[in-house]
Amino acid sequence: CVLCGRTEDCPEKYGEKKTYVEYDLTVHYYCLLMSSGIWQRGEEGEGIDGFLITDIRKEVNRAAKLKCNICKRKGASIGCVVPKCKRGYHFPCGIQKGCIFQFMEDFRSYCWEHKPVQKLTHNECGGTSQCTICLDLVEQLPMYGVLKSPCCKNAWFHRDCLQYQALSAGIFFFRCTVCNNMEKFQKEMLRMGIHIPERDASWELEENAYQDLLQCYQHCDIRRCLCKKGRDYHEPDSKWEIKRCQCCGSRGTHLACSSMKSWEQNWECLECRNIFAKSGRYRKRSKCSLATSDKTDGTTSLLEEPSPKCPRQSPGSQHNFLLQSPKILCQINSSPCLPIEHPASNRMTMSLSPLMSNSNCSQRKNHLRMQRREVSNVLKELKLQINTKTTRLNINAENIWHSALKGFRQRNFSPTNTIEVMFANSKNRSKADTSTASKYRFFHLLMLHLQNSPLFEGSSVKNLSFDFQAVKDNLYFEAGKMIAVSLVHGGPPPGFFSKTLFNCLVYGPENVKPALEDVADVDVAKTIKMIKYANSLSSLQSTVRDCYEFLAAAGCLRPVTDLCDKDVLVNDILSHHVIKRILSPLESFSQGLRTLGVLEKMQMHPDLFSSIMCHKPERLSAKIVCDLFTIHSSSNVKKCEGANFWMAYLQDVESGESLVTLEDILVFVTGSSSIPPIGFDPEPTIKFFDRSYPVGNRLFNCLELPITRTYEKFKNKMEFSIRNTLRLENK
């Protein structure tokens, strides 16, 4: 700088340092502003900020003759404004010595002896308080580096903090940080040498500073986005509309990627759900009513609810129960009621009479049934990832685990490929059976093996066990991967997870509190019970001494000085044995479940997936089987009588008046003994033909039924075909 001779570039202290090549000048703005022998005689854009170049050179020549009273060097361009004071100094030297420079009016400067000071009472001095800008401690003393607010009694600041604040806020926003007073506060700060620039705040001057706030977050953060046009694709009023997290707003999802049917549904991101889980305030999603979820095509049910006073049918006339429905009667007796048929495909959906439903079915079963219906839609969304490229697995039913492991680890295996299963020890299976029934049989056998494998422990419900060799061989990952693939490819669910295991997967192990029922080891359970039910301090201490080695190995050893210590000790043991001991297998198992995005959907819809992961498939009933099939029919009276025979036959099978079971019927048609969570593809249908015996077409999941004159012939032919077909397959 030509005035102070320093090279430092510190805008906060000395003002902006600029070099003007055309004038061969480098100068600090504050040095120029506070020099005593120069004035702004030019226009704003003339010279350097209104200071003419000739005036600047004259001032430099004048200052070159004056010695600084602080550093003793030439170039002291600033003098104390007090008439009798002859001190001169450079601007940076004055700052170091504690001089005051007033950036207002005549731009006066005061030396360290004549500078203005704040008037403080004796009570206001002494002690420390917090600077309301940097929040560090500040001494309440009349010092150069400390300033007190003129409008607030207990507001103290560091001078440097105030100067930084003033430069950032500008004259329009610089005010007391405690009471927001501007006029009185600015006047005092200017008097005490704080420079307040006459410009807008720095955050207002930044170009597009608030651009991010004007844009809504539009990005799908689901691990496996289903949108083919990318995660940033957003189409309002469609399934590709992006919904933001209702809690943080910083995460989003396509409606389809989270299986949401409308914008009105609430959605929280995984991070927010974890926070709620930790705080114990996790909010469950509201579920659609059963009536809503049943309406898939906008039509109403074809069968009306019978009168509650309708007489109960006798066992001998069960096959006539459908004739009580006025809709069916209307179809049989007269043609004007034919709108009951679907005009486009000539298909008719048949439902069982409410008389066939179990009147004692619990509310819990109905709730589970509704959840399973909803989880089917979620899994169908995941199934969109499956392509037409096929991967064939050669499976040995007698060694299901090793052959499955070999198939899943083969080089060309991909979870997104269509899977075909060929059993190595099966000679009589057709090509159709290979692509449908054999695949379900494979997954069914695989789930049974996993349930009884050393990877899990427990009786009816299972937790993960700790098998060091399995961890080393990465078998927990493969098990999780197999379960995920089974769910998406139409296989059965595991159905044996304990609530603790499921919650660990969904909410994280750190948010789960295990129970005594989760302990499969008899000796460990016995130890926990002895501690839990100890009725005196001496018996508790005795039990702890007896279990010293076990507690020490588990890291649960703690001093016991009160009987209530047993609760903490029990929780420590449970947490170690059920969760902490298996953290490594759990992490590996979780990674496997992430295959095809299954774990992410579990975390998004915990209630839905709990119904299939922690509960066995619902036992088949006549109503469930009947609702499962769509009957292709016409107004032909004989074919409608065949439909009546079919439903009456289901009623006989359910009541035990048949040699086959409802599971046998399902296997006969689809190759599956239960309804997979994702449902059947294609959906099961029934067709009537003039043939001798019924045929189960597993390629299309179609049951082809014969048209008979009497119910007895229909029943005999059904049982003959089903029993003989299954007997041949089981050989």
UniProtKB/TrEMBL annotation:
GO terms for cellular component: nucleus. It is found in: Nucleus. SUPFAM superfamilies: FYVE/PHD zinc finger, Hect, E3 ligase catalytic domain. Residues 1-115 form the PHD-type domain. Pathway: Protein modification; protein ubiquitination. Residues 291-316 are annotated as: Disordered. This is G2E3 ligase.
